Amino acid sequence: MAGENMIAQVSDPTLHGVAEKVQQGQRLSADDGLSLYATTDLLGLGRLADMANQRRNGTRVFFSANQHINPTNVCILRNTCTFCSFARMPKEEGAYTQSLDEVFAEAEQARDMPTREFHIVGGLHPKLHLSYYTEMIRGLRERHPGVHIKALTAVEIAHLARIEHSSTIDILLALQEAGLTSLPGGGAEVFSSGVRATIAQRKLTGEEWLRVHREAHQLQIPTNCTMLYGHVETPEDRVDHLLMLRSLQDETGGFLTYIPLAYHPDHNELGEELERVGSATTGFEDLKNIAIGRLLLDNIPHIKTHWPMVTPFLSQLALAFGCDDVEGTVVFERIYHDAGAQTSMQLHYGELLDLIRGAGRDPVERDSLYQPVRSTFDDLPATWMAPSAQTTSDPVSVV
Ligand code: SF4
User: Fold this and answer.
1) pTM value?
2) If you measure from the C-alpha of residue 301 to the centroid of ligand 1, how many angstroms do you get, rounded to a whole number?
3) What is the best residue among 70, 74, 76, 78 to mutate for testing ligand 1's pocket, by most ligand atoms within 8 Å of CB?
4) Mean pLDDT over residues 58-66, rounded?
5) Tens digits of residue pLDDT in 22-42
6) What does the pLDDT look like over 135-175, one tens digit per residue?
7) In angstroms, rounded to a whole number, what is the distance separating the alpha carbons of residues 345 and 348?
8) How would residue 386 be classed by pLDDT, with cut points 50, 70 and 90?
9) Which domain holds residue 194?
């Protein structure tokens, strides 16, 4: 593909300049980003993004054997993040907070599985202090020494700093000392202050989110980054958001992957206001956001599709649109299922292999830091591969 004339690959003449830049490996501008959002030439856009991806990652597609853990859904911002279906007030029906023993019991699922990562995020609980999280991380490390801990969004870090009367950098240091490996990318939503005033009024600002990630990178804690799309944001808001991520990456190089997150409208106030049910985004929009992420974020190594939000089917298609990571096994996905996601709560190791191979790509199991763990898959235990052997009921039932 590298030798192909990319201008010939796009049918929309407004993309010719972008195609030329992509072919020559030049950086795209904000105006280029807006042209990409405006085009209906989805296949042309996909070819450009695929070229940019294959230049970097070849035909490899990464996945992880991971397990999501959500220790609490109690959140002090429950009434102001209008897009969120997961959070509850402390005494509200469906509210839960796990003891450390319950977290450790849930993590036991990893014992017989190839799990390499615990992904831990939850609500901003008014009474769960830093020690709850440091003891959790230490306890998980002791019980599962080979498993990376990717835990707590920038929003949770800022919340802990507030209730501990500390700084975000000291919170990060304490978590790192306990065994934290990396930070997830949630809480970024869209950085525009106007959008945040509508969907996440009391959440930390975009500048604060970026500052926490900058601090993490300074401590050699790699992080992910995200953008929540499909609600009230404009194409300009999306492009500004992506360029702010790109600018921080120029400065620190600490982002591992970018994950566009599709807004889900069920069981939340914003969905009611917008009068949307079931799905707020379309397959066209989902693929566009993957491809534009790959093209604008020329300095972030990986682009991940979050299959619980957009379905495994669309995630497979995303592999031809600039995406090189299909998330992982997940095991218990609650946040988007509370918002109406109809996908299953987990994908099995063998299903991920089939999904990637079905797109003509080469699967590589990775750890949290994108170090390859395995790229040949002969003679794996049947318990890793067979859905019936892996299906587990969720120990926490929210809705
Ligand atoms: S999005 Fe996060 S911070 Fe906002 S209410 Fe939901 S759990 Fe709380």
Assistant:
1) 0.93
2) 28
3) 78
4) 95
5) 999 999 999 999 999 999 999
6) 999 999 999 999 999 999 999 999 999 999 999 999 999 99
7) 10
8) low
9) 46-390
Instruction: Indicate if the pLDDT at residue 341 is higher than 80.
Output: no
| Structural domains in the chain (count) | 1
Give me the CATH number covering residue 110: 3.20.20.70
Question: Whose C-alpha lies nearest to ligand 1, atom 1?
Answer: 84
Q: What percent of the chain has pLDDT over 90?
A: 78
Asked if residue 99 is part of any domain, the answer here is yes
